[in-house]
Write a structure and sequence with these properties.
CATH superfamily of the largest domain: P-loop containing nucleotide triphosphate hydrolases
Helix content: 25-40%
Shape: globular
Strand content: 25-35%
Bound molecules: guanosine-5'-triphosphate, magnesium ion, zinc ion
Radius of gyration: 21 Å
Structural class: alpha/beta
Order of helices and strands: EEEEEEEEHEHEHEHEEHHHH
Number of strands: 13
Number of helices: 8
Strand order of the largest sheet: 10-9-8-11-13-12
Length: 301
């Protein structure tokens, strides 16, 4: 038999050394990573070859727009080649602006376009207005929807299916409805969904590992369903990058006394005075401070 050139496929799921991938030529196949040295994550484009004893992933193509998170002192690449990161929040106790802020920073640092999706609008958006109006005022791309009732899902579908979006990803805290949304966007996906605990108001981490679903079976457009997180570590990011990812700080910083102001204790800081004048939301500044503290603590070790 003539030797076959390696094919290229998109990674849908990784479980230890097992990988599910999609290629236009073969459809969905499962295989194994040929070497422990290969860092393979969902969304990666990989080379693979069929051998007598199975399918093997032999290489990972250079990725762009990877989503990274610091976790217990190490840096975790969560997904690759993400064209649109949908940061999902939800009405009710599952709206966690601290995690939303952090995911928006992670996206900005890697130049991943982000869309804030406020799900569960059927529960009434009045209770989250104070927070969402701030995101709106600073220019965060945002939409409201209800996965349960189907409200505004066509708009989300349009965004996720826009030209140029090959890989869309859904991330957010547990219980906001990522898998419910995914099941609406990809009929037949049957991603497991879970209850929100009555005691804590939080989700129960129903999704346990990242998994991508084909949004169009022939073209290979995918949507990644990430597991919920309660915390999104950013200790790998530089403080300057964090400040640059807060659009309202960037605007105010032109008026800071020092051009390299980090908006901490420097005199004449326009960001800090912007909080007093109500121009900048205090909770956004608190988010920033918490990230800066995390970065500086990590540096001490
Ligand atoms: N009221 C209401 N409930 C919703 C909506 N979307 C999802 N839910 C409910 O929220 C709960 C959690 O949904 P999931 O889709 O499992 O949430 P998830 O974000 O995937 O959670 P993890 O996998 O744990 O990260 C389920 O009980 C869903 O039925 C919605 O639009 N409105
Ligand atoms: Mg889920
Ligand atoms: Zn400043």
């Amino acid at each position: 038999m003539a030797e076959q050139a390696a094919s290229t496929g998109r990674v849908l799921e990784v479980s230890r050394r097992y990988v599910a991938l999609f290629s236009g030529a073969t459809g969905i196949v499962t295989g194994m990573v040929s070497s422990k040295a290969l860092d393979v994550v969902v969304g990666d484009l990989v080379t693979f070859e069929g051998r007598d004893d199975g399918v093997f992933v032999t290489g990972v193509l250079p990725a762009s727009r990877s989503l990274y998170r610091s976790y217990r002192g190490s840096l975790k690449r969560m997904g690759a080649n993400i064209d649109l990161l949908c940061v999902i929040a939800g009405v009710g106790q599952v709206l966690n602006p601290v995690v939303v802020d952090r995911m928006l920073v992670a996206a900005k640092v890697q130049l991943i376009p982000a869309l804030l999706v406020v799900n569960k609008s059927d529960l009434g958006v009045g209770s989250v207005e104070a927070v969402t109006s701030v995101y709106r005022s600073i220019g965060v791309d945002m939409l409201f929807c209800s996965a349960k009732h189907g409200d505004n899902l066509n708009e989300l579908e349009r965004r996720v299916g826009a030209a140029g979006v090959r890989v869309a990803a859904l991330c957010g805290v547990s219980g906001v409805g990522k898998s419910t949304i995914l099941n609406q966007l990809v009929p037949g996906a049957k991603a497991r969904t879970g209850e929100v605990s009555a005691r804590t108001g939080q989700g129960k981490q129903t999704t346990t590992q990242p998994r991508a679903f084909l949004a169009d079976p022939t073209g290979g457009r995918i949507i990644i369903d990430f597991p919920g997180v309660q915390f999104f570590g950013l200790s790998h990011v530089a403080v300057e990058q964090v400040a640059a990812a807060f659009p309202e700080f960037v605007e105010a910083s032109a008026r800071c006394r020092f051009s390299n102001c980090r908006h901490l204790k420097e005199p004449g800081c326009a960001v800090r005075s912007g909080i007093d004048s109500g121009e900048i939301a205090r909770w956004r500044y608190d988010s920033y401070l918490q990230i800066v503290e995390e970065i500086e603590e990590a540096r001490e070790y």
